[in-house]
Write a structure and sequence with these properties.
This protein is mainly alpha-helical. It has a single domain, classed as ACP-like (Non-ribosomal Peptide Synthetase Peptidyl Carrier Protein, Chain A). The chain starts with a helix and ends with a helix.
Length: 76
């Protein structure tokens, strides 16, 4: 997985402009980051990144870069 692919998925989930997510953003600073976004990320992770994420695991992440590391660890 590339970080660009995750960034793109986050943009889709949040309805953000293409290219607006760089990966260092804090999740709490993202306006549309809520429980629905978490569920959508869980579905995208299963479908597009071939890994299972829990809400607890996602909640432990502070940034999009943390999410990328989590996904990489889950896929290993």
């Amino acid at each position: 997985m590339t970080n660009a692919k995750l960034n793109n998925e986050i943009e889709i989930i949040l309805g953000a402009s293409p290219g607006s997510i760089k990966g260092d953003e804090k999740l709490n600073d993202l306006g549309n980051w809520d429980s629905l976004a978490v569920v959508m990320l869980m579905a995208a992770a299963a479908e597009k990144f071939d890994c299972e994420l829990t809400g607890e695991a996602i909640a432990s992440c502070a940034t999009i870069a943390d999410l990328a590391l989590l996904i990489e660890r889950q896929r290993a």
